[in-house]
Amino acid sequence: MRFRHPDGSTVHLSYCTNVHPAENLEGVLAQLRDHCEPVRRRLGRDRLGIGLWLAKDAAQALINDPAVLRGLRAELDRRGLEVVTLNGFPYEGFGAEEVKYRVYKPDWTDPERLSHTSDLARLLAALLPDDVTEGSVSTLPLAWRTPWDAAAARTAHQALSSLAERLDALEELTGKSIRIALEPEPGCTVETTADAIGPLTDIASDRIGICIDTCHLATSFEDPAGALGALEAAHIPIPKAQLSAALHAEHPHLPEVREALASFAEPRFLHQTRTRTAAGLRGTDDLDEALAGDVLPDGAPWRAHFHVPLHAPPAPPLTSTLPVLRDTLARLVGGPHPRTRHLEVETYTWQALPPELRPRSRGQLADGIAAELTLARDLLVDLGLKELP
Question: What is the pLDDT of residue 359?
Answer without folding.
Answer: 97
